[in-house]
Amino acid sequence: MIDVLTKEAIALLTDLISIESFSRNENKTGDRIENWFKNKNIPYKRVKNNIWGLNKYYNENKPTLLLNSHHDTVKPNSSYTKDPFKPEIVKDKLYGLGSNDAGGALVSLLAIFAFYHEKKDLKYNLIIAATAEEEIAGENSLRGLLEYLPNIDIAIIGEPTEMHMAIAEKGLIVFDGIITGKASHAAHFNNNSAIMKLPFVLNWFKNFKFEKQSNLLGPVKITVTQVKAGNEHNVIPGEVNFTVDVRVNDMYKNKEIADIIVSNAPCKLTPRSLKLEASSISINHELVKSGIKIGRKTYGSPTLSDQAALDCPSLKMGPGLSTRSHTANEFIYLEEIKEGIKIYIKLLDNII
Length: 352
Fold this sequence. Notes:
The chain has 352 residues and is of the alpha+beta class. It is built from 8 helices and 18 strands. Helix 1 (2-17) crosses helix 3 (99-116) and helix 1 packs across helix 8.
């Protein structure tokens, strides 16, 4: 059975790699995933480019487990030497854009959903959701799909984690900052230059610390990532615009972080969104205990996923390696997909 599921999963992933699916333009991979449901005779629904389905014996009186991963990709970077849309197998590696992030996880979760779909007397209902716009945290990602789904009690988000369990994940707030001063000709003295205030502001961000640290996620991390000022060499600009990336641990809510930074920073700051919260699941949850029982490790993840859209407990887990994501000549090992399917089934067999 595992060999059949693996063969079908690899065939589906090969097709998905060959179809361009940049965020907001996933309609054709959505069509291919629809065909997967049709070929399996599994009922499904589609909301924009999000495709989802329920197990055959869904019972609204039971708790529900969401299986989710995404089929959108980033654009290939300029260092590619292979055709990113030409799936190629070389020495047990499947090359192609989206193979690792997160195609391997997606097809593995679809495989196990098919495995459990017609099983009776499951302890949990299952929802499978192949979603769009994850790479840009878009409004038509899992976040936008949630209003159409039944209530979710627990979730597995498929991302490359080497099939270990990320039981916590940092949230994100991006701030737009402005340092104001007086605009003037560069030849004249100016004691209110926005640019000359920049070192003080950067130093403030470098040294500002939040008190609460997380055992899994460590401290809140603040990084100034972009700075822009001026258009002419002989004009002192009246303002400096910059961007701050804040990775939030599970000890704070995003609004609390925003209030603290905005009220203390020596400049004007505006958060773009407060939606991308940190997430976590108790190490004592039966799903995590099941993973530990079969030899999976737990850790806290610094990278963002669609976990941020969920209010329920969730863990991030999937085949592949996170550091391969968004790299040139992206690949996943075929054995990782097979192993991923086996581990997912072992994980769920202990609880459902």
